[in-house]
Amino acid sequence: MKDSILILGAGVMQRPALLAAKKLGLESYAIDANPNAPCVSDADHFAMIDLKDRDEIAECAKGLYERMNLKAVFTAGTDFSANAAYAACQLGFASHSYEACVNATDKALMRQCFRNARVPSPHFILLEKKYVANTLSASLVSSLKFPYVVKPVDNMGARGCRMVRNRDELFVAVDEALKYSRSGRALLEEYMDGQEFSIDALIYDGTFTITGFADRHISFAPYFVELGHTMPTTISCEKYLALAKTFAQGVKALGLSRGAAKADIKWTKDGPMIGEIAARLSGGYMSGWTFPYSSDLNLTEQAIEIALGRRPEALENFRFPLDIDGAPFKMFAYNCARSAAERAWISIPGIVKEVLNLGEAAKIQGARDIFPRAAPGDRVVFPKNNVEKCGNVIAVAATRQDAVRAAETAVKQIVVALEKGNPETDDFLRMKRAKEDGGFPPQAFELPKDVDRAFNFELDCESEKKIGEFDLISNNIPDSLANCMDIKDWNNLTLMETIEKFDKMNLNHGELNYKKFWLALIRGGLQGALYVSK
Predict the structure, then answer these.
(1) 3-state DSSP call for residue 96?
(2) Mind listing the pLDDT tens digit of every residue in the chain (534 residues)?
(3) 282 SS3 class
(4) How far apart are CA 170 and CA 133, in angstroms?
């Protein structure tokens, strides 16, 4: 009988684990609350179990241990590393302790562990739903020096997380964060200003090996939406080592000792500061795609080897030591042989009519994977978190510049066309914004203030002007935009490229209102232009 492994989750982020299990000759058992999860078919066996149900997961593991030679419990890219550890530890498997994984899952406990161990992280206030009014007293609120960040203590993907820039935004942000918290708790913490990084590591037998170090690209304040990451990082060696040491100190403070860890960490004016550490491999296509592509190391496979109680030989054969004084582990790293870049594409609000040019995106030299997440009939929104994006591209090249160019060029090919007559789309194009969001969502093309004033004045003067049937938009460009053709939108298209794409895609348009068309294009990019022209 083959050894078997229980994998929590059957989504896209768990596919590398299911494939690695197969490669290692293991019988795989996947569990998920969704029987139609996209990677159910990649598992040898599947059971519908809610990943929040710690006790049912443990009972499932015990049954597999008794009947099917279970040797490990594993997860990656989920919120449920603690539940995986709970089951693994009951059976004596190699794992972080359950308590350590709880520390790494509950952000309030995490912050307290860092505070106790004097690991650099933001100062914080714990907010509980029942006591928010008492905690956020008038005197406390008046003493706050903004900006701050509000986040739920028990969620991932930046859901419910946002910057608070003034008192007017505070209580709305707290209410939103509490909606995303299973336990009804949120953190109010100081904002860390600085360059952000994602770092993966494997920890076992007193060693700590960095297995991926990427620059993160965050946009759309006051929210924190990762539009992509790029590896390897371009940070200096000195800062790299300081960030690695702080990550290791954070891991030690949480009590993590055997398995994977993932850090979101910043370089601030005061040096390294930890945002979060998770007791698992990263999601967001990093551990399962960009790092393996750039390093030739199947990271998930090596993490499973550790969960099986084995030595990760492929990791050990090529890692190299890091000279870091005072680190709590023996420190190593694994080199990237090439560069990889992940980039997302996004949409304005509406209902998807069709997603165009996925095939063209896949043909871009260097583009390795295209992951669409929105399909015809789906409702899409302008993203406030990392699960509301419409899809992702991964590109690989010998140089960072070429990898980034390939990813961004692939994203530029993809067009999410929206159904007509949708109130959410109409409101977006009319610039209707919630007061508490303070300028969110942004325009597709953020014009300099003087250009924006001239543009709106010009359109007001031409309010009755028409663009004739079949007339090229490139023949009807407002004079005020003449020096802005290189400005880019959120999907990397310049204003000139957007105009050219519209002319190519929509040669048979009817008569258009000049003012309405140009407002829609500047506000909503190519999507906005297509929406008002159909």
Answers:
(1) coil
(2) 799 999 999 999 999 999 999 999 999 999 999 999 999 999 999 999 999 999 999 999 999 999 999 999 999 989 899 999 999 999 999 999 999 999 999 999 999 999 999 999 999 999 999 888 888 988 888 899 999 999 999 988 888 999 999 998 999 999 999 999 999 999 999 999 999 999 999 999 999 999 999 999 999 999 999 999 999 999 999 999 999 999 999 999 999 999 999 999 999 999 999 999 999 999 889 999 999 999 999 999 999 999 999 999 999 999 999 999 999 999 999 999 999 999 999 999 999 999 999 999 999 999 999 999 999 999 999 999 999 999 999 999 999 999 999 999 999 999 999 999 999 999 999 987 666 666 789 999 999 999 999 999 999 998 889 999 989 999 999 999 999 999 999 999 999 999 999 999 987 899 999 999 999 999 999 999 999 997
(3) coil
(4) 12
Q: Are 31 and 51 in contact (CB under 8 A)?
A: yes
Cα angle at 281 between 276 and 286, to 5 degrees?
Answer: 95
In DSSP notation, 179-242 reads HT-TTSEEEEEE---SEEEEEEEEEETTEEEEEEEEEEEEESTTB-EEEEEEES----HHHHHH
Q: Report d(CA 497, CA 505) in Å as an integer.
A: 12
One-letter identity of residue 434: A
What sign does the dihedral 175-179-184-189 (CA atoms) show?
A: negative
Burial (0-12, 13-18, 19+ Cβ within 10 Å), 236:
exposed
Burial class (CB in 10 A: 0-12, 13-18, 19+), 288: buried
* Spatial distance between the Cα atoms of 114 and 185, rounded to a whole number of angstroms: 19
- β strands within 402-446, DSSP E: 415-418
**Residues 69, 52: contact at Cβ < 8 Å?**
no
| Nearest CA-CA partner of 268 in 197, 328, 366 | 197
Give the chain's count of helices (H) and strands (E): 18, 23
